Automatic annotation (TrEMBL):
<feature type="transmembrane region" description="Helical">
    <location>
        <begin position="21"/>
        <end position="41"/>
    </location>
</feature>
<feature type="transmembrane region" description="Helical">
    <location>
        <begin position="82"/>
        <end position="100"/>
    </location>
</feature>
<keyword id="KW-1133">Transmembrane helix</keyword>
<feature type="transmembrane region" description="Helical">
    <location>
        <begin position="145"/>
        <end position="163"/>
    </location>
</feature>
<protein>
    <submittedName>
        <fullName>MFS transporter</fullName>
    </submittedName>
</protein>
<keyword id="KW-0812">Transmembrane</keyword>
<feature type="transmembrane region" description="Helical">
    <location>
        <begin position="242"/>
        <end position="261"/>
    </location>
</feature>
<feature type="transmembrane region" description="Helical">
    <location>
        <begin position="360"/>
        <end position="381"/>
    </location>
</feature>
<feature type="transmembrane region" description="Helical">
    <location>
        <begin position="332"/>
        <end position="354"/>
    </location>
</feature>
<dbReference type="Pfam" id="PF07690">
    <property type="entry name" value="MFS_1"/>
</dbReference>
<feature type="transmembrane region" description="Helical">
    <location>
        <begin position="169"/>
        <end position="187"/>
    </location>
</feature>
<feature type="transmembrane region" description="Helical">
    <location>
        <begin position="299"/>
        <end position="320"/>
    </location>
</feature>
<feature type="transmembrane region" description="Helical">
    <location>
        <begin position="53"/>
        <end position="75"/>
    </location>
</feature>
<feature type="transmembrane region" description="Helical">
    <location>
        <begin position="106"/>
        <end position="124"/>
    </location>
</feature>
<dbReference type="InterPro" id="IPR051788">
    <property type="entry name" value="MFS_Transporter"/>
</dbReference>
<keyword id="KW-0472">Membrane</keyword>
<dbReference type="InterPro" id="IPR011701">
    <property type="entry name" value="MFS"/>
</dbReference>
Length: 383
């Protein structure tokens, strides 16, 4: 009888892992499918850069406002209904984003899209932490690696369909069909429960949770810097043709994806603290190489090192969030993710302001200092 129970537990855990991987993949696809639609929204509505920026701000506002509720809802109803509901809302919003021209309706759609993405992001990370703890193994890097794979697949599929002449709405509907089929496959093994129910909906991060949030802020800020400023730096400082300047972020993203897909074995071998320490140093050295050495090949190498260094830091931080006892996970996880989102949303703007008053090289040099801080702070994760 004991053997049967053990076998059932193993099968359940395998199913939970597989479903968690599918949901991370789905989240990456949904998030990246939106990116190729942004310039089409701009052209369709006639918005200038300032107006588009205000419209896109709704995504960030919706995400950050919704995240604390995700912790409460997963604790109250379980991960499964929150993940399913938020994914279905995202699937409903994507077609609207592909063809709406009425600005108030478009703004509301972007807000709801951001809120649903924030809810899904929190819920899948809560699920991943529970599944990892139940398994007794290191799994976070692999989960986040599937998110990166989904990002590449979603952006690539949307770009391919649009470049072949398919209209935005049919292109989006093709992806939505894939997402819904994947969700149907994953749903049975999503967790019908969440974290503890005790505790407030909102809580100010403190102690180790505050540290984890700050470190997430820095890593996400670095990702935002690569997304928004690497192409600008290559074109303006390294004389790379603008049409090829996107290679900078491509090198960063490819190295990050590869690092995450191989990260679980690395974390198991070296330990989370050592991975964060070495990762912060690797990312800082990579950024320094891109800034100090002339020529765009050195910058591309540097960006790849930044991606490799950052790849497993956030997964280790989420694992640490699952172990900490300072705050309930239902409030700790949303707080940490919200600080990370703030980094990717606000960081590039801060870099732009610093560059305005000094230079882009100096502004990006500040990221080197922040990454070294991440490396030095890693030893505190034992708490």
């Amino acid at each position: 009888m004991t053997g049967c129970t053990s076998s059932l537990t193993i099968r359940e855990n395998y199913g939970e892992r597989a479903s968690t991987r599918i949901i991370f993949l789905i989240t990456g696809i949904v998030m990246s499918a939106w990116a190729p639609l942004v310039p089409l929204v701009k052209a369709r509505t006639g918005l200038d850069e300032g107006g588009l920026g205000l419209l896109l701000l709704g995504f960030g506002i919706g995400s950050i406002v919704a995240m604390p509720f995700a912790g409460y809802l997963t604790a109250r109803f379980g991960c499964r209904p929150v993940i399913i509901a938020s994914t279905l809302v995202l699937c409903a919003m994507l077609p609207m984003l592909s063809h709406l021209t009425w600005l108030p309706g478009l703004a509301l759609t972007v807000l709801l899209f951001g809120a649903s993405m924030g809810m899904l992001d929190c819920a899948i990370n809560i699920q991943s932490i529970i599944v990892e703890k139940n398994s007794g193994e290191t799994l976070q890097s692999g989960f986040h690696g599937l998110y990166s794979v989904g990002g590449i697949a979603g952006a690539g599929a949307m770009t391919a369909m649009l470049s072949l002449g398919l209209e935005p709405l049919p292109s989006v509907l093709c992806l939505v069909a894939i997402i819904l089929a994947s969700l149907y496959k994953a749903a049975p093994n999503l967790l019908p429960y969440g974290t503890e129910r005790d505790g407030p909906i909102f809580a100010v991060p403190r102690g180790i949770v505050l540290l984890l949030g700050v470190l997430c802020f820095i890593v996400f800020l670095t990702e935002g810097a690569m997304l928004d400023w690497s192409a600008v730096f290559l074109a303006s400082q390294r004389d790379m043709p603008s049409s090829y300047a996107g290679l900078g972020y491509a090198c960063f993203a490819a190295a990050m994806t590869l690092g995450r897909l191989t990260g679980d074995a690395l974390v198991s071998r070296l330990g989370g603290i050592r991975v964060v320490t070495l990762g912060g140093i690797c990312a800082a050295v990579g950024m320094l190489i891109s800034l100090v050495f002339d020529g765009w090949p050195a910058s591309l190498l540097g960006y790849a090192l930044v991606g490799a260094g950052c790849s497993n830091i956030v997964p280790v931080l989420f694992s640490a969030a699952g172990r900490q006892q300072r705050m309930p996970q239902r409030t700790a996880i949303p707080a940490i993710i919200s600080m990370g989102y703030a980094g990717i949303l606000m960081g590039p703007a801060f870099i732009g302001m610093i560059a305005h008053f000094s230079s882009l090289t100096i502004a990006l040099g500040g990221v080197v200092v922040l990454l070294l801080f991440v490396s030095c702070a890693a030893r505190l994760l034992k708490a």
